[in-house]
């Protein structure tokens, strides 16, 4: 079970080195570096774009030292006004794994306090629709942290259930475009959203989803493969088979 969501210093908000992960784990790793255009977070707006050339060279070098254990990935933050620039960046580049995310609305990142002053219902509906649009426009392998837009809102399952029709529409879109659903252990265990994920899994199980991805969203060595034993148990509980994992 590979950790499919991981950052290094090639991401604007991380300083971890590949070796931090490679030296404490014997298997394969893939890093999914942030690509966020017009990113308002942490003193923005800025275009946060991984240096593809340097990233590719660094991984080729480490693959010689560490027995080809490193794959190339990206976490594409979708922002509709910059869609053409996003597609232009991806053109001709080779990634083993592409995560798709919606992190911000041009004014603030959804982890910032401003999200707390939005109309909750309007925001959640709009956020889920924005992810659908991202799926339609950007080729990717995994829908990352479906709950990112409301991570800060401490929703209960009953509160999220009000949006079940919207979630079902989103999940159907995700399945139609062959994206995997991510179990994001940072959302689940650092933002205490495990109940929301279990609720989502119950819907996905009923809908017949057979593509899943497990990711820690780690920015530090200590978050690598965060709670993966617990997640393995969840996969068993929900009948998710090993071969359904990307
Ligand atoms: Zn993200
Ligand atoms: Zn991430």
Question: Could you characterize what this model shows?
Answer:
- By secondary structure, the protein is of the alpha/beta class.
- It has helices at 18-22, 52-65, 83-90, 120-137, 157-161, 164-176, 185-189, 194-207, 228-237, and strands spanning 29-39, 46-48, 70-77, 97-101, 142-143, 180-184, 212-215.
- The chain has a seven-stranded mixed beta sheet with strand order 2-1-3-4-5-6-7.
- β1 (29-39) and β2 form a beta hairpin.
- α4 packs parallel to α6 and α6 packs across α8.
- It is globular.
What would a concise description of this structure say?
This protein has 246 residues and is an alpha/beta fold. The protein has helices at residues 18-22, 52-65, 83-90, 120-137, 157-161, 164-176, 185-189, 194-207, 228-237; strands spanning 29-39, 46-48, 70-77, 97-101, 142-143, 180-184, 212-215.
SSE topology sketch:
Layout: H1 18-22, E1 29-39, E2 46-48, H2 52-65, E3 70-77, H3 83-90, E4 97-101, H4 120-137, E5 142-143, H5 157-161, H6 164-176, E6 180-184, H7 185-189, H8 194-207, E7 212-215, H9 228-237
Parallel strand pairs: 1-3, 3-4, 4-5, 5-6, 6-7
Antiparallel strand pairs: 1-2
Helix pairs in contact: 4-6, 6-8
One zinc ion binds near residues 5 and 7.
């Amino acid at each position: 079970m590979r950790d499919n969501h991981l950052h290094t210093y090639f991401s604007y908000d991380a300083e971890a080195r590949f070796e931090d992960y490679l030296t404490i784990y014997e298997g394969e790793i893939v890093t999914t570096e942030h690509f966020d255009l017009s990113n308002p977070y942490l003193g923005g707006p800025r275009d946060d774009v991984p240096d593809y050339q340097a990233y590719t060279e660094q991984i080729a070098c480490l693959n010689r030292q560490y027995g080809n254990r490193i794959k190339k990935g990206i976490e594409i933050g979708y922002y509709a006004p910059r869609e053409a620039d996003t597609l232009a960046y991806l053109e001709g580049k080779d990634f083993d794994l592409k995560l798709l995310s919606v992190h911000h609305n041009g004014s603030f990142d959804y982890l910032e306090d401003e999200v707390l002053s939005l109309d909750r219902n309007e925001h959640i509906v709009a956020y889920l629709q924005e992810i659908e649009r991202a799926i339609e426009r950007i080729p990717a392998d995994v829908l990352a942290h479906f709950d990112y837009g409301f991570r800060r809102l401490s929703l209960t399952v009953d509160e999220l259930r009000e949006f079940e029709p919207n979630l079902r529409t989103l999940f159907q879109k995700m399945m139609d475009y062959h994206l995997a659903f991510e179990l994001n252990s940072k959302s689940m265990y650092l933002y205490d959203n495990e109940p929301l994920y279990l609720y989502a899994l119950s819907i996905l199980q009923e809908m017949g989803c057979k593509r899943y991805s497990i990711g820690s969203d780690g920015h530090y060595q200590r978050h690598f493969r965060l709670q993966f034993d617990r997640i393995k148990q969840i996969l068993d509980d929900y009948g998710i088979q090993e071969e359904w994992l990307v």
